[in-house]
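In keeping with the milestone schedule agreed at the kick-off meeting, the structural modelling team has produced records for the first pair of proteins. Each record is given below as a sequence line and a structure-token line. The laboratory manager (R.T.) confirmed that both were archived under the project's standard naming scheme.
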Amino acid sequence: MLGIILWLSFSVKALAVLTVIPDLTPDDFRCKGDSAVHPVCRWNNHEYCDCRGGGLPQAGIDPQLLNLLNELQRRFNKPVIVNSGYRCPQHNSYIAAELYNWTDDCGNPGNPYEVSTQSRHMMGAAADFYVQDYELNPVEVIDTILSIQGLNQQSPEVRIYWVNQKKRDGSYSTNYYHYRAYSTPQWWIHPYAPQEGRDLDNRHYSGVYIHIHHRVNFDESSCQPCYDN
């Protein structure tokens, strides 16, 4: 009987070891450009070529972003899948041009203005991600992100927004995104429904994903973060 108990105890411990999720590293955030596969796109009388991919920002991936997503993995004991991490300026511009030339399965045209020219992706301070097995429950993931910061949806530091869609002509529509966006002193958190935000980096994935970026200042000349905290 004692032998069975010891065997069960060992088996449970072994199972716990097997389910440890490896930490995310900067390699998980490398630029997803691929000029060998992606064709040249034309937009606003300019031609855009994608980068070769695999790059990382000069200053590295934002350490607070990396720590936050790793803590999220530990709390859920599930992998965080990064669809889009760092985007070099060339890849970021290509994504916008490619959206202009793309239509979805319903014939709706892509919107290049969804891609910010000051995207925190270009600083390594943003990620589009989902938590495995929680693809349809982004609110629980967002609540956990807030909890990591010692906050909840009722905290005075948390602001909640309905976000307007920006149209192809640059104006804003009266149609709101399906999910609400959240702002804290450090982070902007924006979940995208399956029919939203399907740029080139996120198009392979049909579920809900969350965009998060660190609210740091942006140096346009170098595409690098300017930390003021």
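The second protein of the pair:
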Amino acid sequence: MIRWNRRRGNIKGQVTKLENVFLDKSIKELKMPGLKAELDIVLKQQDKFETLKNDYCKNASDTELSEAEAAIDSIEDDLQKLEISLNTSLNELVYNSKSLKMPNIDGSIKNSHIANNDQPKGVPIKLLKIPLPNFSVTFGEWNLLKMQFNSLINENPNSF
């Protein structure tokens, strides 16, 4: 029981330290690698705590388990809140990096999707509409549909 309390206290101290770092304004200034590193630390702490909890539950009596249940729940809740907060911050960072605001020549702001490479890089290309054959779900028409489709591909090799 004493050993478990020491290990639990160690994990609780590390969780509190992570919470303080996250509540500090510096976490908002972290970039994606920093947030991922913090999330990895939280996930490792969850694994350590799960192992510790399983070992304790195997060796503890029912009265000891009932006494430690509140501490176990508290640490699990703290770890879960940290994981959710870090995942939310990561998702916000990814979302914000995908929709950067770039000023236009006239000074107005528009959404630009530079991270997605959605912005055209040259002259826009207009593709011709190709009439696709209709298939009426009968087996006999399958070969006809296949030939029509292949001829469309062969007639327009540069379109694909």
